[in-house]
Specification:
homodimer; about 350 residues; alpha/beta; 434 Repressor (Amino-terminal Domain); Rossmann fold; six-stranded parallel β-sheet; six-stranded mixed β-sheet; about 45% helix; about 15% strand; elongated; DNA-binding; transcription regulation (chains A, B)
DNA sequence: CTGAAAGCGCTTACAG
DNA sequence: CTGAAAGCGCTTACAG
């Protein structure tokens, strides 16, 4: 039914070896132009397409990248993650690699080892790994295949983990955001994390917030709540915050999606942004500037991250085994929600 | 390095056949419990994981589903598509299938045939295929593998295409949305499509809008513009609309993301929603009710669609070859943007 | 209840 | 410049 390389060889009047050499463009094979043309014509005539499983089995490489997402629920609600998927997909395609999507289950665990051993993928990009996964990831990287942790701080290298990482510096950026609020005169600055702090990125942003308060001597005003990815959970987290006795004049919100919910909760409470409460958030998703109050936020570059992750993985696949950290610079985008200006 | 089934067989003191039977749970093999246990223990002890390529080559099935996305750019900006990816991923996982992501390139073309012939996937879910792709999809389905077109109207069956489809009825739903505006007394109802009308869903929504106008005898007021997926493109499309001489008191916007841009364009133009201009849009993305004016919109159920697509594909994979259309009901969610009520 | 052996469709030393 | 042949690691009739 589907033609195999043997049919192509027969039609072209050569051996399967030659067919393989021509189709895979093997340099050192010294195929004559005449032969090459014959093979190419035969393959085209038969509509030949190599069987991927056979190729993979024989060559030991699957030509596919595995993208591991945290709890897949993130994708339902968080625009940031979608952009990561899109850019990784795009770049993989550009590099002639296929893309396999995996996600961790409810408990956040994925059998990385099984995936690695199955030979289904040549390398792994793991998005926002949990702190508890670092040991296993390191072992996967050492034993089986290259691995890039997306959205991880470079500390993985500092602490002896061997795999590559890419990410913006959540800690520094969070400080940047909070310092902006401090500079505007705010003293009582609350924090709403965008998810559970088992996620490294959530945790780092919280630490950055706290560190900024410490340096300014404002920790006595520190109060915080955690949302759970959706705008709705942000709404609820903000309500919990409002019920506390401690007051605040500004909130550093863990991401933009959650900030949408926070804005609504504040409005529903009769509070105006930025007049009564100033907000700075994180991500600069495409809708951030279309929010009820255009959001002042930390702009990250997920597309660049995604592309870079793929590039780093391919580097390692080529045998360039140095684990590196690629840092993506971020920037504070000032819009209306912090009350410091009206640029949009 | 990685153990193979032969090592497992050796350790368990059986043949590879037996190992394969036990691990694949082959019913009719009549493996004794004692043997089964021995094999399982040996496999566990060695940390054995079957090689996927070998399995696929030998069995003729890859146990993976291919998910084909339209222009990958959609994912950058459209929350709807992300939910589709998430649900398909989730359901695939639940069904023990792997998920391969493919996307069409800039010109919107993908070599479906190559993908099908490579044997990399057992079946295909194609999201929002372009009208021009139907012939090829039909052929792929006939020649190579089951295929489900996601977001397609059932007309594919009516017109003789053989593959299965799933989707809400864009035409009917658009009419529903527009009729709601008509019922509220609007006569001059403009339309802003969310993308180019080469996409079947964009086209159907436009037709639904126009059909509603026809039935109400309002086509003389019909004006339209098309955005290009992002909120920003919605902003621009709305500006173009505002520059026309024709006036309007309501807009049916092709999706929520674009509606965010439309809202901003109207505000910047000094128009209030819903007082001056009423808006109904489409999708009910998670942020729709957190928009500057909570959006009245058609709620679709992408998660259900995604899950159903996978289920339909698996049915066909099991040999149940009937092409069917699964229709997902939608509903109009009334919020503030149409001015008819204040439910949220 | 279990095993020997063929076969899936490629790649890749190796030999010439 | 090209080909015969082994091998990748499984599954699956077939035989017993």
């Amino acid at each position: 039914m589907k033609p195999t390389s043997i049919e192509v060889a027969r039609l072209a009047g050569v051996s399967r070896t030659t067919v393989s050499f021509v189709l895979n463009n093997v340099k050192k094979s010294g195929i004559s132009d005449a032969t090459r043309t014959k093979v190419l014509n035969a393959a085209a005539e038969l509509g030949y397409e190599p069987n991927a499983a056979a190729q993979s089995l024989a060559s030991g490489s699957s030509a596919t990248i595995g993208l591991v997402l945290p709890d897949i629920q993130h994708l339902y609600v968080d625009a940031f993650l979608a952009r990561v998927v899109a850019s990784v997909s795009e770049e993989s395609r550009a590099q002639n690699m296929k893309l396999l999507i995996e996600s961790t289950d409810g408990e956040g665990s994925l059998n990385y080892r099984r995936l690695a051993k199955s030979g289904r993928v040549d390398g792994l990009i793991v998005v926002n790994p949990r702190e508890g996964d670092y040991d296993e990831l390191s072992e996967i990287n050492r034993l089986f295949m290259p691995l890039v942790a997306f959205g991880s701080p470079s500390r993985s290298i500092a602490t002896g983990y061997e795999f590559s990482t890419t990410g913006s510096n959540n800690f520094i950026n969070a400080k940047l955001a909070v310092n902006h609020l401090i500079k505007l005169g705010h003293k009582k600055i609350a924090h709403i994390g965008f998810a559970s702090s088992v996620f490294a990125s959530v945790h780092s942003r919280e630490k950055g917030w706290f560190s900024a308060l410490e340096e300014a001597g404002l920790v006595q005003y520190a109060i915080k709540e955690f949302a759970n990815l959706s705008a709705d959970s942000g709404y609820q987290a903000c309500q919990r915050l409002l019920q506390k006795k401690a007051s605040f004049s500004a909130i550093f919100v863990g991401n933009d999606t959650v900030a949408f919910g926070v804005l609504k909760a504040l409005f529903d409470h009769g509070l105006r942004v930025p007049e009564n409460i100033a907000i700075v958030s994180y991500d600069d998703i495409p809708l951030a500037r279309f929010a009820p109050v255009p959001l002042t936020t930390i702009r990250t570059f997920p597309e660049e991250h995604g592309q870079k992750s793929v590039a780093m993985l391919l580097e390692q696949l080529k045998g360039n085994v140095i684990a590196t950290h690629h840092k993506i610079e971020s920037q504070l985008v000032i819009r209306n929600s912090c009350g410091s200006g009206l640029k949009s």
